[in-house]
Amino acid sequence: MIWALSQWLNSPSGNLQLTATAFFAELMKDPPVMEKKFLESVLGVLVEKSQHGIGAVRQMAVRGLGNAVRGAPKEVRPTFPLSDCSPSLARAW
What we know:
By secondary structure, this protein is mostly helical. Helices cover 62% and strands 0% of the residues. α2 (14-27) packs parallel to α4 (55-71) and α3 (36-49) packs antiparallel against α4 (55-71). The longest helix is centred in the C-terminal third of the chain and has 17 residues, at 55-71.
């Protein structure tokens, strides 16, 4: 299911992109045990979608990033990988 929805992230349809972004945003609330590489790629997509042209997609992406930070262990939060994102987004955190 995760793989199928990940294909929608780059769909030409804004509705499919919104659905997939919302799914991954909710997944970040309590991420299952995932490989670090997969988690990093989801975070990268959420950072990318936070600059999307459709406001609802941006909103879901930012919600997912917030969920990821809230769901991260406290000892990891200060080093959370948002340093690679845009400066304006990094300042918001």
